[in-house]
Fold these 2 entries.
Entry 1:
Amino acid sequence: MTLYINKKTKTYEDYNVAGRSVSIFPIILTFAATGVSGTTLLGYMEYGYSLGMGQQWIHITMFLCVIIFAAFLLKRIRSLGEKHKMVTIGDYTALRYGEKARIPTVISIVFAYCAMSGMQFVAIATILNVTLGVNFTLGIFIGWVFLTLKTYFGGLKTVIWQDVIHGMMLILGVILLFAAVLISAGGWGPASEYASSLGQENMLSVMNITPGEILVYLLTLAVFQFVRQDLWQRVWAAENSRTAGSGYLISMMVAVPIGVITVAIGVLGRYGLRLEEINPVFIYYGVVNDVFPFALVLMMIIALLAAVISSADSFILAGASSIVNDIIRPNASHYDNQKMLLWSRLSVLIISAAGLVLALTIPGLVNLMVTGTAMTVSGLLAPIVFGLFWKKVTNTAGITSMWAGLIIAVFWQIAGHPFGLHPIFIGLPVSTAVLFTVTILAPKRVSARA
């Protein structure tokens, strides 16, 4: 399919925003397939098994931000993108704060998507290690080569149409697995009784989580939706505003419950199926092997691969778009469509290589994603959200806010979270404070273009 659709990818916009012509059915499934990644099935299930139902706050905070995005941000983003033919978030920040805003935007976006791409290489490696006994490091390299080549030759058109297939496989697979686990466990009641007999009934409570952990999820994974480039690109790729809005809402009504179910499967695996002698990292495979015959086990491995592939190519492409659109294009306005198409593909190689390095150096699927999203949220959330609705924010305030939040968050991460504080608790407040302070001190330098 990749090679077939590649023949129809003729222009720069075809490759990066699917020609801005995607209809309602594929847009729903591409939103859903991208939202439910390999991390959802592996990382969230592992968290459910190890930490309990309190991890549902990942999805509670996510759903809150989905509603906010759909109600207040989506139409504004679509309108600006349609009017100015935007390809990346960098196009917006350049319009709002001037061309100098592209650089901190690119750095923030690229950091997140390199981390999120690396996360999918780790997921592929885990699958190969468990199913075929492949060395974990070798598995990361295999995942890297496969996903890089697929994205290089594809582009967003290919990604979206493959998401149609992968999305349906994934949704049906998770629902089938949840039903099988519930039946095998005898329902939620026996699991609750067993947890109580162990003195661990708190593991089945949604409140089994600290306020600090909830805030980390809210300010990283959840609000990342507001500055998520692959999401913005799909909003612009839809054939019209109504398709974008309806497609996003419908898809999230599916994707968020799939995440909730996944955490619940992890909990049921521990207390319903009583899979206690297992490495939490491998709980997905343990559950699948426990409730399904071999043929269905293979089907569930394929569903997992579908989740990884659907997200990986989207993440790699989103990061690559920032490089080609916000670094190459502004400095090479004389390039024609074919040269820009070539640079789009070369940028895919750059992002995937950086993702490979992160996959080899940062352990843990969810940790890798949280680290990447924290950097982006720290640098971009305040200037983007306030810039969309508050015309008084100045160019200087916006750019300074981006650099301040990003630099502080990166420093805090490298320093090892001093005082036990996550980088998001430092970077985002600093970015917001700088934006307000500089705007108030320099009220006359206003950019109202956006």
Entry 2:
Amino acid sequence: MTFIVWIGVIIIIWILFKILNSTDAPKINGLPEAPGWPIFGSLFQLKENHYFALLKLAKRLGPVFQIRLGNKRIVVANSYDSIKELWIKNQFSLISRPMLYTFHTVVSSSSQIFTIGTSPWDESCKRRRKATATALNKPAVQSYMPIVDIESYTVINEILKECEDGRIDINIIPHLKRFALNTTLMFTYGTRFSSSFDKRLEEIVEIQAAMQRFRSISDNWQDYIPLLRLFPAKSSEANSYRLRRDHYLQILLDSLKKDIANDTEKPCIIGNILRDTTAKLNENEIKSIGMSLLSATLDTIPANIIYGISYLSSAHGQQIQERAYQEIQDVYPDGDAWEKCLVEERVPYVTALYKEILRYFTINPLSLPRQSISDIDYNGVIIPAGTLFFLNAFAGDYDENHFIDPYTFNPERYLGDVDSTPHFAYGAGSRMCLGSHLANRELFAFFIRFISAFRILEPNDPKDAAILDAIEANQTPTALVAEPKPFKCRFEPRNKKVLESWLEISRKRAENDEHSMRD
């Protein structure tokens, strides 16, 4: 009898092991597989810098391989050419997103409101993408440049007051987060914050940063090992942030609805949707659009500007600054770059500069996963529908077979003939970031104005100098989006009198716009 009991126990353990060690898809024949552990797969190997760990695996396995993370089987692309082959050539097969436990079940447990970028491909996602694409097309983006005017004026004016003509070290990060959030709040909801240290601004920034951690590909093991969902700590934290996020989203929407009812709202995307009687979007879909715009902007704009300024403050960066400044002077010898940058992009070196910032720092190093909706033939290997895919954007942007000396910051790589896909900072293919054109215009205008206004210098205290290595400069390598480590630098006005005249022009224009909207 005892022997039979032991046999039964062994059989039960074997069955449980088979269940726990199973994957959502069978092994893909013909595609190299990363080594891993039973049940956990390769989760231990990803460690903190998951995108760099995948890049190192690609050196051994080849640019495209399969990997097990818990019970999920995933195909990872790690080179420029393989990403173009899978994400662009097969973009309609890779148009959907997977549903992951932490973000889609816990963070969105009550409202089931997902950002557009994290939504599976369905009719609702199509409607939201169409409405957002219309709001972010080139003519629409140009209509938002007055917002970039006032917000860049505000942050530059504050830095001018704070910098003491370049004598003191400044932490610019709060100012730039406010610039990014205010810009988005204005064109999304028609509202803004008046201080870089407003508690509500800090609340939104904190919550959005937490949301990126819950969307992390390697930091949420419960997405891949269902047994871990029995331990509530991670879920409780995610639920707490969800409640706080839903609270401020509702406040923003209710405030805008009140302004519309009183006919006092400022022109904005959500306001236009609410006033459009033909729009076929329900309230949750409208909230999703607002949440998507806030999330995408806070992911992209502040980090890229912060990283850009951090590099420009270095010795090499100051050489790049001076070249950029001379190019600006050559194109605008009459000193009207401050105004012209809002309506045109005519300084190729500054365009090359922001493209190199996007590539070098690749703030979304491992893009949000895709899920195929049809079979894909990759070099004779059939990858079945329903497979998860990871785009290792960092690996693609540092591919030595495509970029010469990729670990060197060099804007000149983007002068002259450039591939139509310059980098993967915005993803690629059918679900590429909808706001990339707006982001590029913001980056161009900001750097034109900033470099025209200041010399960006290293700090007095070397301990506060920026870290220039893109991997080491990331404060939270396990998060979905890179977060710059704190640093300080100095800002020396190039010509204080001229700068003050530019600021006065923007100030008066902002006042006139405010009066005309009230009238």
